[in-house]
Specification:
By secondary structure, the chain is α+β, with helices and mostly antiparallel strands. It has seven helices and five strands; from the N terminus they run H-E-E-H-E-H-H-E-H-H-H-E.
């Protein structure tokens, strides 16, 4: 067995490089580019579903898929092509395109879709509105 070389602190904290992936939406046929998220971006995304008292905001659970799409869709230069106002417009997409985009974004960013779905199922008794 060969001994693995351990990373130094400098290596661990080198600026993260964004990872990108091109996907094609199954219904519209549009090709889009998605980006990875930093640990802080991922944490902010997850935290947006919680109210100050630790309960879940149902409205935020309902738009979790669209929020992730907005964070991940970028142009060739890595600039986001969508903003928060586009979440309403994404609600009019074909659900197959939206679901495919969300699952691809979640897989690319390391977000566990089962966790979000579990939050939605388990939040019925503990949900608070905005």
């Amino acid at each position: 067995m060969s001994k693995a070389t351990l990373a130094s602190a400098d290596q661990l904290f080198a600026p993260a490089k964004r990872r990108h992936k091109a996907i094609t939406l199954p219904v519209s046929g549009h090709a889009v580019r998605i980006q990875s998220l930093t640990a802080c971006e991922s944490a902010r995304y997850s935290a947006q579903t919680l109210a100050k008292n630790g309960s879940f905001k149902m409205s935020k659970l309902e738009d979790a898929e669209r929020r992730l799409i907005v964070l991940c869709f970028v142009d060739d230069d890595g600039n986001r092509i969508l903003n928060d106002r586009d979440m309403i417009r994404l609600g009019d997409w074909d659900s197959a395109d939206a679901t495919h985009a969300y699952k691809e974004c979640a897989a690319h960013t390391g977000i566990n879709t089962d966790d979000i779905e579990g939050l939605a199922k388990n939040s019925e008794k503990t949900t608070v509105e905005d």
